[in-house]
Amino acid sequence: MFRNRIGIQLGKSLKVVSPLSPFSNQSFATQSVFRRQLRVDRTFRARNLGLGTKKSIDVMTTKELISQAKSATALYQYALDMEGEEEYKPTRVRYAPSPTGEMHIGGLRTALFNYLFAKNNNGTFILRIEDTDKNREVEGADQRIVDVLKWAGLTWDEGVGATKNDLKEGGTGPFGPYYQSQRLQTYKKWVNTLVENKQAYYCFCTAERLKGLRKLQQRSKGGHTKYDRHCLGLTEEEVQQKIDAGEPYTIRMLVPEGTTSFNDMIHGQVTMNNRQLDDQILLKSDGFPTYHLANIVDDYLMGISHVIRGEEWLPSTPKHILLYNMLDIEPPVYAHIPLLVNNNGAKLSKRHGDISVDSFKEKGYLPQALINGLALLGWNPPSHDDPNILYSNLKVFEESEILTMEDLEAYFSLLKIGKSPCKFDIDKFKFFNSHHIRKSYIYYNSDERKESSVRFRNLLLKILPEELHSAIRQYTYKPMAKIMDMMIPRIQFYSDLKKHTYYFQKPDFDSEIAQKFYKKVMSQPEKSKVILEDLHSGLSELDSDFKREDVAKVCSVYLYEQNQKGNFLKNKEVFFLLRYVVTGNYVGAPIGDTCEVIGKQATLDRIQDMIVRLE
Length: 615
Known about the structure:
One of its GO terms (molecular function) is tRNA binding. Keywords: Aminoacyl-tRNA synthetase, ATP-binding, Ligase, Nucleotide-binding, Protein biosynthesis. It is a single chain. The protein has 23 helices and twelve strands. By secondary structure, the chain is mostly helical. It has a three-stranded parallel beta sheet. The chain has a three-stranded antiparallel beta sheet with strand order 4-5-8. The N terminus is likely disordered.
């Protein structure tokens, strides 16, 4: 009989409510969600096990299950999968970086996916520091990891830095310490068990011998290298003699014959011939474990239910499954997220430029923009016609890719992650940054508009040089709100505000951007001078309130009259010319709006300055 439960056995991804679970006191609507999750979960697992179902697995008869099963093994595995313990097993995930330098943008995505999965499943998000490679460790890198996660808004529930305790105390939680360097005795106990069970062995080979072996195998085997088990035949007495003599050693796992299979939530069934696996070092000569031992021991002892990590670890996972089997402990569910690649399809790495999170932060990317972009690298938001939709109040995402953390927490699912590599498009991240800037200044009524304009004024005082502060403060609420409405949609970063200082001072025509457009606008200086003199005359006749529609009308009437006289002018020869003279730029907000904000006298003064400049 299939029991309703929350489980972490092979292939499980979504929660199911048991009458005795902590969720039994939830509302009917909440319980309905979990029942629908159960149906999707069963179907997902059945398909991955070869039970190619066309309808929900929980409404199939036993006869239908048997007829659709590709093998008896698949059917039996499905039965085992669904017949789990009645005990409640919570969702627990971890982000476990190594403190070897600045956090890679891909590392932040891994942390994000773990965080979102925990939030979406009412689980626990843990931070663990895997500092077992002392040769590559960078002092202070652990603190930078903590700082980046806090900046990105990824709060964790347990582990390093989870409280105000000193960082090196390992944080708080029932399964600490959360620094692997503080858990060495634990690893030695587990590796000794493997040695006692003849599933691991001592290796005394020197670095020189191993280097020579690799070179020999590379020449003869086309690059594939494996340890040759030179030390496997040593007797217990010989091993002890070498240890007593002080010879350095490592401990290697003894890979058995056969094949190793596991089910990945993203890649499905993965099988590897054990001949392809090396006798991996588990304990190094310095007494520190390798990643392969430490991660499976810690994941088990810390109750990790799902391991969500990069696809680069997929080839190593059979080794980890073997270790779980050797130690007779249950493995977590695995989900290997797709690689990030550059425009050429090569794996994104430090060689391809500034891809550390700190570099994005320094360039002015907002945390919510970076999170938005990273979430969509591999994960696809649900749509209203998705057959696996679990929520009746689903927000439709087709019209917008701009997602908040709340959106992501509500709708994230590992079932919506693809296998294909994800191209990292920097222009897309600039797009997200500009839209999240706009989003932060959206208003829906006059009170919100006033509040936004005050925040914008404070932003200008923070970003722009001090000599402009007096001019900034002269603007009252309404014109400042107009400046905000014109500037915010035209920037990708807050630092871009420095390109729009013409609201507060005359443009610098010796600047790089002004020089760039000078020849484009002033290709015929004498003609431009005549046009400016005519515009100066026409604009001088306007009232002092200098409304934008009146400015635009003067330009349009002038353009029409000149064409009627046979002095054919293009729009850009009037409107773009005036914009350039007033702002020092070729593109920007409608020129009438800009002139209205800076005022009649400032507009006329700037036109006159350019007339003099052209003489």
